[in-house]
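Many introductory courses stop at the sequence. We go one step further.
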Amino acid sequence: MVYAQTTDNTKSSLLSTLFTLPIYPNSSENSTLLAGSPTPADCSQDGSSPRLSSLQRNASRPSYELTPGETVTLSMAFGVLWLVSVFGNALVCLVIHRSRRTQSTTNYFVVAMACADLLLSLGWAPFTLLQVASGQWMLSDTACRLVRYIQHLAPGVQVYVLLSICVDRFYTIVYPLSFKVSREKAKRMIVASWILDAAFVSPCLFFYGSNPEGHCNFFLPDTWDGVTYGIAHLVLGFLFPTVLIALFYHRVVKYIWRIGTDGRTVRRTMNIVPRTKVKTIKMFLALNGVFLLTWAPFYVAQLWHPGGAGSRQEALLFAAVTWVSFSSAASKPTLYSIHNANFRRGMRETFCMSSMKCYRSNAYTITTSSRMAKKNYVGIVEIPAPAKTVTKESIYDSFDREAKEKKLAWPINTNPPNTFV
């Protein structure tokens, strides 16, 4: 009986040692327990068993690994959005590059947003999905910083490009003669948006990073520097341009439409605005609404997110926020194809093969001067008119007084009577 009781005490002391060491690896209590317990035969040089070291490594790793069902659902959702985003935005750039009719000032801004979406799709989305699905960050610390930098860069560029489009549409419709955004000005505005936002989000290279346990931070750190930058990023990078966009479009909409006396009916004003420009305004209103609604959770989550780096709740919130934000990149090409007839015609022209005629109707005259149109025989064939030779006799023949008199309502006497007295 005494031997059995001694064995039970030894087992209980060993169990307490195994469960307390991963929590307090350097405390004095563990050393006392180890001294009072029998030493195992298989020990390492530092006095800890291999089982204890493995428990320590497993306890320090992040615990946000998803279930197989969650991983499959997230992978399918991200895969569909990724395909639509990459294919659609690449098609937008290709159509605008090949079609002369779509090479307007506004479409320069559209290409800039498509490039930002392509950067987001290729430089951020695959690595984020890999981290959330596998439960750890398997790349280097520099890759973690670059991926998070791209995540902050792309929406900041797009929101200021949308502000530039808003300014262009405002002066084109409300004040068409006072200011005009030319192609050179549009290019400068786009370059300024990229450079300023690249400098503004540069602190992300210092706030983010990966730890030795294999975790790349999902959100900004909960320090004073991180919170201060998060507030500045929310106000200057999202709220301020959003307010300006709303004010400009409110003025444009008020210039085009007016609300009836009953407060329900919406009618056109007396201001003459072409129908094509009105359709463009509707398209950009939908585009701004989708962009601002899908990216608002990302900016808010940088300040309000569950604590505990690498927790399961934080990983699920990050996956939901990134899925909603990334849907904006896939929705833009869809909106272009729905609201813009020139873009649809450009897509048809792009997909036509060189051995067939795309459109035989003379009504379809998109880009008769483009290379693809000439290759596919698109447009109206311009036949030079025969040159007219002007002679002296043709000049006198062109004016026939007798033929002109027959077409008059009443004849005119060539020699009126002399009424002189």
